[in-house]
Amino acid sequence: MRLHFLYYLFFLAVFALFGITPAQSQNVFYTPDGKKLTVEKCIEASEERKAQGDYRGASDFLNKAALIHWERKEYREAIDFFQRSLELNQRLSNQSGIYGIYSNLGTIYADLEKYDSAYYYFERTLEGRRKSGQKPTIISALINSSVVLNNLKRYNESAVLLTEALDLAKETNDIDQMKSCYGMLAETYEKAGDTQKTRYYFDMYRGFHELSQRNRVVEAKNEAEEQRLRAALLEAEKEKAQLEIELKEKEIKKERAKVEAKNDTLAELEKNFSKQELALRVMEQQSALREAEFEREKAAREEKIIRQKLWIVLTSGLLALVFVIALFIYRSRQQKKQANIELRQKSYEISQQQNRIVVQNKKIEKAFSEIEQKNKNITASINYAQRIQAAMLPDRRLIAQTLPQSFIFFKPRDIVSGDFYFFHEVDNKVILAAVDCTGHGVPGAFMSLIGNEVLSRIVKEQKITEPDKILNQLDQGIRNALHQEQTHNRDGMDMSLVTLDKERNILQFAGAKNPLYYFENQELKVIKGDKMSIGGDFHKSRSNFKLHEINSQNIESFYLFSDGFQDQFGGEEGRKFMVGRFKRLLASLQDKSIESQTQTVEQTFQDWIGEDYEQVDDVLLLGVKMQIKN
Questions:
Q1: Cα 134 from chain centre
Q2: Strand, helix or coil at 324?
Q3: Is residue 543 classed as helix, strand or coil in its secondary structure?
């Protein structure tokens, strides 16, 4: 954010601290005899005041020296003089001077873009302004601190200070400050990335800006009308004065003409009449003059009466005009007062709404905290369940000892899995299965625990090794374990299971919906599983699972799997991986080592998902190259 507003606040602080008028704001000072003050003279005057014990006067000249350096952009020197002045003010306990200097130091450090130091001094200033209790200075100090916090990218703290400044501006009904606070809050939340609050505060700023503009237009109209009336009154007075001058000039000319006529008459009389006649003429003339003077006075009285009447008319007109103007101003003020009342009401409603929002946010935060704690507890429980499930699965080292050319690609969708694999060796026979239970996550994991337990009892305790018999027993065991005849529970599992008879060189297979893929002479062969699941729908009539036998000496490799890999969405078009692509993937593995096969499968799956898609189901793939270790 630009620091123009800080500069403005700084100069206001200077005016308040040193009594400088706006015309002096260029930091040019003069001595009582009219000479321009320099830094050197300021230092000299400060030392003189200090020697006299006038520390306040000494600090005043140090401040002036600092301001002169500041005007020249000599920031280090300005800071030094302000610090020296600060020491004197602290000795005097001059709180006003101390906090004024703090504000100046904060602004200088902001000019230097040292925002940590600027914030330190603005914080000290804010402390002092709060103690003074003067709301306008507190608002300025809050805005100063918020501007620096914005530059430090501490947007939340900046928003808190601006909100406090806004509340104080509402209390003082300072529309311009409210508008500034709304605008700065909008800019702060925009930088913080809060779009909703940015839009809200910008709308408030725009509304207050329009209100401020309307107020200024009304004030400008009122001022223009007053100026027009003043000009009209001045012109009327000017015309009146000019009329009086013209009347006086006419009277003077008239009197001058009478005197001249009188002189001419006397001269003529002296020539033509005797003294007696002349005296008689003089008497007649005097009588005529008296009559003329009487007529003139009468005319003057009549003119005076006319002027008085004219003045009364003009005065009445002016009074009427003033009354109209006063009425207009009164109505404008009443409208403004009403607008202020409505604005305060609106501000109060907004404040109440904000309070409700704050309370609601606190409730949401509390609920979120509780949910977060519950999630942590649930996640911890699921992680513990995952360790139990991992312990249930066969040890891969045992599988590697018996099937060294084998790999397992096992990727649960969640922490725990509904897929699991089974391995056991008994009587020179190897039983291997890939099982896909109903669901995934916690429900699937429960099913996998039940399925693994029942399957282990069938193979390890009852020593049943034929795949079809294992599946038949497993189907009945799951139905009994879940009481499906009574509870109508439909959960179950799909699976493919093989038994490698090393003595007879036979691979036996049975499947519940899931198939067996194997390669013979580099060609993919498929044996489909039966179209029924283990457990599940109790309404359907059940039949036994079918057994398939293959000469294992002809098999190059075979694969057991769940449907998670084939059903995974991804690629450029967001489609499923599908069976055809899955078959081509397995075909591409045949010339590769078992380690390379594992890497290829993992990389293919990851590339298919990419960054745009999420795993939709548990994934399990068992691959075996036929080199069985006795």
A1: 30
A2: helix
A3: coil
Beta strands in 16-101 (DSSP E): none
CA–CA separation, 198 and 176 (whole Å): 19
For residue 432, what are its two tokens? 């291997």
**Best CA proximity match to 58, nearest among 45, 39, 77:** 45
What CATH code is carried by the domain that includes residue 113? 1.25.40.10
Q: Is residue 47 situated within a structural domain? A: yes
Greatest CA separation found in the chain?
188
Contact 85, 121 (CB under 8 A): no
Can you give the length of the chain in residues?
630
Q: Give residue 82's domain range.
A: 4-152
* Residue 183 falls inside a structural domain: no
- On whether the CB atoms of residues 589 and 518 are closer than 8 A, the answer is no
The phi-psi region of residue 424 (left if phi > 0; otherwise alpha if psi is between -120 and 50; otherwise beta) is: beta
Residue 127 placed within a domain: yes
Q: Domain end: 102, 134, 152, which one? A: 152
CB contact burial 154-169 (16+ within 10 A = b; e otherwise): bbeebbebbbbbbbbb
Domain boundary among 152, 178, 205: 152
For the chain, what is the domain count? Answer: 3
Is the pLDDT at 5 greater than 50, yes or no?
no
Q: CA 564, 565, 569, 570: dihedral to nearest 10 degrees?
A: 160
Model confidence band, residue 304 (pLDDT cutoffs 50, 70, 90): confident
Q: Note whether 472 and 614 are same-domain residues.
A: yes
Q: Which of 559, 555, 552 is nearest to 506 (CA)?
A: 552
Grade residue 501 by pLDDT with cuts at 50, 70 and 90. Answer: very high
Q: Each residue of 244-277: pLDDT tens digit?
A: 777 777 776 777 777 677 666 556 655 554 555 5
Q: Are 628 and 402 in contact (CB under 8 A)?
A: yes
Residue 350 in domain: no
C-beta separation of 561 from 496 below 8 A: yes
Q: Tell me how far apart the alpha carbons of residues 104 and 85 are, in angstroms, rounded to a whole number.
A: 12
pLDDT 10s digits, 563-613: 999 999 999 888 999 999 999 999 999 999 999 999 999 999 999 999 989
